[in-house]
């Protein structure tokens, strides 16, 4: 009786190397450009927004007292400005995280920056609405400071400055708020539209999530 040799499994034919199976080489420069600019934008924005809140709530009132100007911001206005300052601080941290992740080519960076753009626009709208709501308090504060300055000028034998009308001060507040909000909104609008493009979504498919 002859022994039968075991059947050896057939070897699979060698497969050819398919370069399309590998993720394409990412040589795009936009992640670095946007990441660095976002960091610069964040640092400048935080200094301006948080500094403005501190100035309005604390330093502005302190200077008014130093000039013997009878003015006090309502507690609701102080709370609103401080809340905006805290919200801007949180958004600033969010943007730093997104910018760093973008520089490392992580998909999380695109998501964070896209959400930041939406939240930043919402916060700008809240800030613009707050300017309209607290305009009467700001008008009284500015007039009191001007009047206090005029008293000092009269004591020193100088001609006092004319006191603008409530309408002029109100118009100035609205114009300044609109110009500031418009300038600040340029980058969030650009960033939101740029990162939402189909080309960007296709390019980051091969990026790691974290």
Describe this structure as you would to a colleague.
- With 210 residues, this protein is mainly alpha-helical.
- It has helices at residues 30-66, 75-103, 107-133, 135-155, 166-195, 198-203.
- The longest helix is centred in the first third of the chain and has 37 residues, at 30-66.
- The model is unreliable at 17-22 (pLDDT under 50).
Task: Give the secondary structure arrangement, pairings included.
Elements: H1 30-66, H2 75-103, H3 107-133, H4 135-155, H5 166-195, H6 198-203
What descriptive keywords fit this protein?
210 residues, mainly alpha, 6 helices, 0% strand
Task: Briefly say what this structure is.
The protein is an all-alpha fold and 210 residues long. The chain has one domain.
Task: Kindly report the oligomeric state of this protein.
Answer: single chain
Low-confidence stretches at least 5 residues in length (pLDDT < 50)?
17-22
Q: Specify Rg, calculated over alpha carbons.
A: 29 Å
Shape: elongated
Number of helical regions: 6
As a percent range, the share of helical residues equals: over 70%
Largest sheet, in brief, is: none
């Amino acid at each position: 009786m002859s022994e039968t040799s075991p059947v050896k499994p057939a070897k699979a034919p060698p497969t050819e190397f398919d370069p399309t199976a590998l993720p394409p080489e990412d040589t795009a420069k936009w992640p670095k450009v946007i990441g660095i600019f976002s960091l610069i934008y964040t640092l400048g924005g935080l200094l301006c927004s948080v500094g403005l809140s501190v100035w309005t709530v604390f330093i502005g009132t302190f200077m008014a007292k130093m000039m013997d100007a009878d003015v006090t911001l309502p507690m609701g206005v102080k709370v609103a400005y401080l809340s905006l300052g805290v919200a801007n601080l949180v958004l600033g941290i969010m943007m730093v995280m997104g910018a760093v992740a973008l520089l490392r080519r992580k998909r999380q960076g695109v998501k964070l920056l896209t959400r930041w753009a939406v939240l930043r626009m919402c916060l700008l709208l809240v800030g613009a609405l707050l300017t309209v709501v607290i305009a009467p308090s700001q008008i009284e504060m500015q007039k009191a400071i001007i009047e206090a300055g005029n008293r000092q000028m009269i004591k020193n034998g100088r001609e006092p400055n004319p006191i603008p009308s409530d309408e002029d001060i109100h118009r100035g507040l609205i114009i300044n708020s609109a110009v500031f909000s418009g300038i600040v909104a340029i980058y969030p609008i650009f960033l939101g539209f740029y990162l939402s493009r189909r080309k960007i979504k296709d390019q980051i498919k091969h990026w790691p999530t974290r």
